[in-house]
C-alpha cells in the first residue's frame, strides 16, 4: 500500500501545469469553428482589400502570450467565385510573403480539406497556420511562437492548433 501511495504522489508531482490548466472552448460568431484557448481572445473587426479591389470583412480573435500568440481569423467570402484551392493557397502564400515557407500540405479535418503550413521569419518566429474554407468563409488558425518562446508557450501553441474543429458539417 505504501508503494502505491508513493507512486501516486510521484505521479501527481509529475503532472505539468499544462495538463492541469483548464482551457475554454471558443466558438466563432458563425458557430462553425471551435478551438481551445487558455483565456478569452481579444476580438477585432476590420476589412482588407483583395486582389480585385473588393473589401472583405475580417473578424480576428487574438491571444497574446508575450513570446507567442494564438490567432483565429474569419474572412467573409460571400459573393466570391474564386476556387477554394486558390483561396487556400493565396492565404498561405500571403502569410509566407517575405518569410521562408518550410512546408505546406493538405489538411483534412472534420470532413473539410484545407492547408497546413509551417513558416519561419528572419528573426526566428515560427508560424503554424491552418486554413480552411467553410460555408464561404476563410478560417485561418495560426500559432506564432518567438525564437525564445519558453516550453510552456510552445506547448500552448501546439495544443491550440490541434484543438481546431468544425462541429457542424458544411460542404
Keyword list:
171 residues; alpha+beta; Protein Transport Mog1p, Chain A; two-stranded antiparallel ribbon; 25% helix; 42% strand; globular; disordered N terminus
Helices and strands in order:
Layout: H1 2-14, H2 17-20, E1 24-27, E2 34-37, E3 42-49, E4 55-64, E5 68-76, H3 84-96, E6 100-109, E7 112-120, E8 126-134, E9 137-145, H4 151-162
Antiparallel strand pairs: 1-2, 3-4, 4-5, 5-9, 6-7, 7-8, 8-9
Question: What features would you describe in this structure?
Answer:
This protein is an alpha+beta fold. The longest helix is centred in the N-terminal third of the chain and has 13 residues, at 2-14. A hairpin with a 6-residue loop joins strand 1 (24-27) and strand 2 (34-37). It has a seven-stranded antiparallel beta sheet, with helices on both faces. It has a two-stranded antiparallel sheet with strand order 1-2. The protein starts with a helix and ends in a 9-residue tail after the last helix. It is globular and about 45 Å long. 24% of the residues are buried. The chain has four helices and nine strands. The model is unreliable at 1-19 (pLDDT under 50).
CATH topology: Protein Transport Mog1p, Chain A
Tell me the number of helical segments per DSSP (H or I, 4 or more residues long).
4
Calculate Rg over CA atoms.
Answer: 18 Å
- Coarse morphology: globular
Summarize the helix and strand pattern as letters.
HHEEEEEHEEEEH
- Kindly give the count of domains: 1
| CATH homologous superfamily placement | Mog1/PsbP, alpha/beta/alpha sandwich
- How much helicity do the residues have? 10-25%
